[in-house]
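**User:**
Everyone, produce one record:

**Assistant:**
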Amino acid sequence: MARPVVLVVDDDPGVRESFRLILEDHYEVVDVPDGPGALDVVRASAVDLVLLDIRLPGMDGIEVLERIKALDEGIEVILVTAVKTVRTAVAAMKLGAFDYLTKPFEEDELLTLSRRALERRALEREVAFLRSELARAHDLDEIVGRHPAIDKLHGLIAQVARTSTTVLITGESGTGKELVARAIHHQGPRRDGPFVAVNPAAIAETLIESELFGHEKGAFTGAHQRKLGKFELAQGGTLFLDEIGTLRSELQVKLLRVLQEREVERVGGTRPVKIDVRFIAATNTNLKEAVGRGAFREDLYYRLNVVPVVVPPLRERIQDVPLLVDHFIRRDNRRFHKRIDGPSPEALAALQAYRWPGNVRELENVVERCVVLADGPVIQLNDLPLDVSLPQQATKVRAAEALPLNEATDQFERQIVLRVLERVGWNLTEAGRILEVHRNSLRVKLARWGVRAPGSEH
């Protein structure tokens, strides 16, 4: 079994040699004199623990710590200093340092601290592996469906994932574009790197540039310390840019440069930072039309649209609704400690008749609501929102179309009768009493609608 790798970063050759003599019987030891050398080792090798001196020439220990964590958040870092100040300790702990070691130190103190840090590293690696295995299965499981369009989507994900090429995912809101992006990431060679998702539309315009590119200390009012942007945080992994069509024109120019040069410059910075990131973008708008209107840069569009992936709307694969409903019910049963078996035939028919303008996300929300509010083990028609259980009329009213009164009245009457029948277990006498009509009248109506009681053969 390979021994853990410990990287020692100190500009004093004597200190580096002391660390090596104490540690080399237990671990593989690599030592460098400065921050850039440390980052080169972290990029090129599998490092488990870094012993990092605070005072280094050029790039100080706090900056090196921040950049190491950006490259691999799981690497444990112990800061070494001659003077332990509270302010520095707080800053280091906020950035993810494991602990502090103050010079001069005892050999046992160093070995004990290193052992504890490496034990946590081993545990976190095991947890990360198990989570990645679950996530890989989860991402594929979440893209639920047997429609040919979904089978084709699974095949395209598998093909695209093997490369690091840029991908543009298009689809209506709620179709699951981020799930597709995550599936591409988890099936690809960058699966062990970070997956960083950012939606420019959800970030205030004044903050978006800082969020994406990061900023240097003092770059603007309130910039009290350096901050790494999403591009740098995604180093070695995947950056998912959702709703890319909302990006302002000046940021489109900067994004194009990042895609071309593979480097970013922080706000207030003076030197570029090289990045190794896979880009996946998504949009619910027609970017080609936006290019024609001058709202989106043509050169950026072609940079992003290397491999287009289209996610179909739910209405085009309506036969997948039962599978999705079953999937969401099983998940929500676990989340809310419920025991819902499924929808009634009438409820399922209503779910399949609805057009789902909000796509899978809307269906997910409807099922969650039904699981939470359902009294019994079956989701009944009356548990569904009215616009789902009366889809044609709701759609027509929303669109302000002419509504045939007789047809609307008959459809509404049908849904009310079915809701009451479900509630009373299809007891026609009891339903007639509630509705104040004779049970024979109900029989006539049901026959006209072609509706039969569950389990009836005739």
Notes: Residues 316-449 form a domain with the Helicase, Ruva Protein; domain 3 fold (CATH 1.10.8.60). The chain has three domains: 5-127, 143-310, 316-449.
